[in-house]
Amino acid sequence: MTAPDGAPWDLLVVGGGTAGLLAARTAARFGARVLLVDDAQPGGDCLWTGCVPSKSLLAAAEVAATARDGARFGVRVDGVAVDGPAVLRHVLAARAAIAPHDSAEALRADGVQVRRGRARFLAPGLVAVDGPDGVREERYHHAVVATGADPAVPPVPGLRDVTPLTTATLWSLTDLPSSVAVVGGGAIGCELGQALARLGVAVTLVEQGDRLLAKEDPDASALVRAALERDGVDVRVGAAVERVDADPDRAGAGTLLLGDGASVAVDRVLVAVGRRPATAGLGLDAVGVAVDEHGHVVVDERLRTTAPRVWAAGDVTGHPQFTHTAGAHGSTVAANAVLGLRRRVDSSGEPRVTFTDPEVAAVGVGTDVAAGRGLRVVTRRHDSVDRAVTQGRTEGWTRLVVDRRGRVVGAGVVGPRAGETLGELSLAVAEGVTLRRLAGVTHAYPTWNDGIWTAASDDRFASLGRGVVARVLRLLVRLRRRAASRG
Ligand SMILES: Cc1cc2nc3c(=O)[nH]c(=O)nc-3n(C[C@H](O)[C@H](O)[C@H](O)COP(=O)(O)OP(=O)(O)OC[C@H]3O[C@@H](n4cnc5c(N)ncnc54)[C@H](O)[C@@H]3O)c2cc1C
Ligand SMILES: NC(=O)c1ccc[n+]([C@@H]2O[C@H](COP(=O)([O-])OP(=O)(O)OC[C@H]3O[C@@H](n4cnc5c(N)ncnc54)[C@H](O)[C@@H]3O)[C@@H](O)[C@H]2O)c1
């Protein structure tokens, strides 16, 4: 396949995940001739193995947990039964409902040509695509490497003998296992560990570090750990898996031997210890695209690789592995490659949400690293946020990181719907909105976002009782009193 007049493609995109889809669609919208190559159905990790199935599973788990928790509100639900195959069908149905938007047909309607196959760079300007119809060569003016990342499997002796599940294979199960050891207490381990436990699976979560969600505020880690334990997850932090002994009679089952001498026997092992950039067999050497010591494609702030006219976007770069980051990369790369713009990406302080219950949401400067940087942290505990009280969910908090000029430069929220609350805070951080301005905006009552307003307005209120402001206010009051008493 070549561009209609036999010329090279303006943009050849390798990988049809979020980064590739956004790059291809944006470039086509600009009027470029675009070919997207993917070795599977377009949609990538987010649609097929990541966000969509995991959030669908979490939704089912939340329903089960809410039903069990009803008695606290005077609503008793007897005999909550989880139908594992039906839960997994719900997950697949959600995926199927979203898939058409990312399909080859939808892409063609948007002006993007699509080829199924594995792409390999042969020389500058030339890619081989190994697809169902054999190997075909494609020429390009600009190319984007958007091949994403794959689950890492640690080299633990015996682990491969139990054919561990990863997020690439979990969704092919037709029923829920009765017990699972989740290895890794990051975003995936915590989200899926909690979901499976709420759905009745006996979950042991093994994290080698000293806390869950190591990238988040330690106070958030503690709340998530407590929540997982309430849901029945057996959390083992500071515990490395030394060896796995496969059960000879049950495929997939085995016993994990931990560094502290403990052993855990389970039906299945789910590995969630991070994701490795997918660059094997891409032929990056042939065009001079360098990768770093972790295998990430090296990019500059404009997403240029070390090779002329080759760009990279999304999880394959060393940037945070989020769908919204991949999407932002995709549109940036399209503008830079096709239009010659000089747009930059900055992933520091990218908004992020871990969809455990409670959710953990953060943006900008970390609430745990602000101290000592001339910043201060304003905290509103949710036991004094009315919405949290009415919902019986007062364990969380809202924190705002404020610089010397009163601007909000970071924020964190832990609680139900924290991800939704983050929208306002992301805008505040991006636009340098001050605490005073936030306090001056009327927030509907009683919403979770009211936590932001009460944090900001309490802080403003406290400042009224200090220093020059306090003296001026007292003077004004005295003057008004005098004026009033004179009639
Ligand atoms: C369980 C889980 C839950 C997640 N939840 C969230 C969440 O809630 N929010 C969030 O923001 N992020 C979440 N993520 C992360 C998110 O899914 C990724 O950051 C995002 O999908 C990355 O997009 P990408 O386009 O860079 O790569 P991918 O989506 O991985 O796309 C890469 C594509 O390239 C194709 N490909 C690879 N090599 C070749 C080749 N040689 N030739 C042709 N095609 C190739 C692949 O088949 C794939 O389609 C989650 C991830 C997981 C695993
Ligand atoms: N809600 C979201 O946005 C969301 C959800 C899921 C995944 N993701 C993305 O996917 C990426 C990958 O997620 P992840 O959870 O696999 O990785 P992660 O890097 O977030 O966490 C991996 C955890 O595994 C631990 N670990 C590593 N090796 C181990 C071992 N041998 N034994 C025990 N523990 C071990 C690490 O200490 C770490 O805490 C995330 O970084 C995130 O960007 C995002």
TrEMBL record:
<keyword id="KW-0676">Redox-active center</keyword>
<dbReference type="InterPro" id="IPR036188">
    <property type="entry name" value="FAD/NAD-bd_sf"/>
</dbReference>
<keyword id="KW-0274">FAD</keyword>
<dbReference type="InterPro" id="IPR016156">
    <property type="entry name" value="FAD/NAD-linked_Rdtase_dimer_sf"/>
</dbReference>
<keyword id="KW-1015">Disulfide bond</keyword>
<keyword id="KW-0285">Flavoprotein</keyword>
<dbReference type="Pfam" id="PF07992">
    <property type="entry name" value="Pyr_redox_2"/>
</dbReference>
<keyword id="KW-0560">Oxidoreductase</keyword>
<comment type="similarity">
    <text>Belongs to the class-I pyridine nucleotide-disulfide oxidoreductase family.</text>
</comment>
<dbReference type="InterPro" id="IPR012999">
    <property type="entry name" value="Pyr_OxRdtase_I_AS"/>
</dbReference>
<protein>
    <submittedName>
        <fullName>Dihydrolipoyl dehydrogenase family protein</fullName>
        <ecNumber>1.-.-.-</ecNumber>
    </submittedName>
</protein>
<dbReference type="InterPro" id="IPR004099">
    <property type="entry name" value="Pyr_nucl-diS_OxRdtase_dimer"/>
</dbReference>
<dbReference type="InterPro" id="IPR023753">
    <property type="entry name" value="FAD/NAD-binding_dom"/>
</dbReference>
<keyword id="KW-0521">NADP</keyword>
<feature type="domain" description="FAD/NAD(P)-binding">
    <location>
        <begin position="10"/>
        <end position="330"/>
    </location>
</feature>
<dbReference type="GO" id="GO:0016491">
    <property type="term" value="F:oxidoreductase activity"/>
</dbReference>
<dbReference type="Pfam" id="PF02852">
    <property type="entry name" value="Pyr_redox_dim"/>
</dbReference>
<dbReference type="InterPro" id="IPR001100">
    <property type="entry name" value="Pyr_nuc-diS_OxRdtase"/>
</dbReference>
<feature type="domain" description="Pyridine nucleotide-disulphide oxidoreductase dimerisation">
    <location>
        <begin position="351"/>
        <end position="455"/>
    </location>
</feature>
